[in-house]
Sequence to fold (186 residues):
Amino acid sequence: MLLTAAVVTIKISGPVAGAIIALAGALVGLWISGDRAERQRRRDLHARSLAAILAYAEMPFMIRRRRHEPEQASAERVRLAAQFSTVKAELTTCQVLLAADSEQRLAAAYDTLVEVARRTAGQEAHDAWKATPITTDTEMNMGALFDRMGDLRNQLDIFQGDLTHATLPRRIRARQRIKRSGAAKK
Fold:
């Protein structure tokens, strides 16, 4: 049996070819715009998550710097407690949003960062409520408190490295994943 290949020739007119090219260009443009929008959405979430951690880390300082006048004490407790509640709610919200996102590595890194923040800054905030508020300008710096939160700063540096990777365009992250999996097989 002898098989022969048939060649089919399709003639496309100029306007049809132009329409096909325009459609392809529009589709590529939509794909690029969608990729950029997704990357910006991730950046916004990452910035929000980072801001929540930084706000949490600032709470021990704010509590120690609270107004100390007797007539202001109650209002300060209410103000700081409400702010702390808002910050904690934002931390939890960011944890949930990052867990729902496709970057599980970043979500796990954020969970670790939150755990370290609660252990360090949370404990320092707890202790700050027991301490008397500062009353002089020379007490404002609180170097000892800053030093005690070194674990949080170290974990924050690690998280920022993970953020850098997670904010890269999808195609670059995919290439890096392929390289890592190839290196792991060797």
User: Anything to note?
Assistant: The two ends are 49 Å apart (CA to CA). The chain has a mean pLDDT of 86.
